[in-house]
Amino acid sequence: MSKGTRFTDKYIMNLKPAAKEYWVREGRGFAIRVYSSGEKAWYYIYTFNERKRFMRLGNGGYPDVSLANAREEFDRARVKVSSGIDPLTEKQFMELDRKLTPTVAEFITEFIERYSKVKQKGWKEVERSLNANILPKWGDRKITDIRRRDIRPILDELIDRGAPIMANRVLAYTRKMFSFAVNRDVIEANPFLKMSAPAEENDRERYLAVDEIKTLWGNLEKAKMSDETRRALKFILVTGQRPGEVVGMHGHEIDGRWWTIPAERCKNKEAHRVFLTDTAIELIGDREGYIFESCKKPGTSTTERALTHAINRSCPRTEKEAEEKKTVNLLGINYFTPHDLRRTASTHMAEAEIPEHTIDQIQNHIAKRRRGVTHIYVRYSYDREKQAAMETWERKLSSIITGKGSGKVVSITKAKGKVG
Hints:
The protein has helices at 9-13, 67-82, 87-100, 104-119, 123-133, 135-138, 152-160, 164-183, 210-219, 227-239, 243-247, 278-284, 304-314, 319-325, 338-351, 356-362, 366-369, 374-377, 383-402, 412-415, and strands at 22-27, 30-34, 40-48, 51-56, 254-255, 258-261, 272-275. The chain is an alpha+beta fold.
């Protein structure tokens, strides 16, 4: 082939291997190397800083790397040389960088260990969700290769399976992980930033009406759940406290009529005192260890997730779910979550004309209390107001459960003649 003649596919295909490898050059450094094995590889031969350089074009040989693709990479490399950039050194650096770039599986582990366990109270659920939904799909891929469109099939599959809220959570957990990757300089940008949740959520509006409270309280006795779970759900409604803090309740946190949740167990990291009414005391019973210890796993406390699963077994989310799982609604009301019981308590406290700031104190809503700088100086415990409010809620709840008005604090379980 004479120098200056352009390569054609017909010419390249007709190049035969010889006993010794040889080069064929088109000109300007564009060349092909023919090995004795028959392999043909594209190269750019050039001089940079007075050194001759041999840069292989593409990942593979001809015809996997086509003539058109090789020529395109050759043209880009020539432009870089003319601009004072060594394309071979740049390519080698990029290949090394890619080799060191973690796979999604590797980064999930880093995210859980370095961020989730440190920053997220519910890190176990985050880990479970990522391992169940993201790891099987993307595990072997480099995290830098993931694009916005890649998550859509995963979310659609969850929605089609009847788990729209889980789809929202998977997106939220994945978005947080990729934001962490940006902060760790692993990727340049988060592809899921500002991506809308795939399903609408109304969970934050759900609370139990008066008739639902009465129905639930009576039907909990026949629900498919342990006694600890049943008592824990009632305790959330009675005290209005966070499910995650209730399930970890321990005997050493109780002193007479007061339950002090230590700072390390509180969502806002501030210790919180809860007044215990007669019904709350009876639901606690005489246990000295974990108050709501699991029957199935002695020595461990019931988890918030276990409460949700217990509700699911007796109260399916939809008619479709009830039909598919052959589940009967034993609770007699529409589906609810453990947190909805906390919202139910605060809603009915407000209806009983308990001041909003007192409800915030009862439920340890520190974000609402930190308006201005007054909170820095005022450290009043509000114990007296909390007690009065909890006794008011006890009376209201008792009248709902029993259907009778009450002028004084009466244990709901005693009024019913039975400890729940």
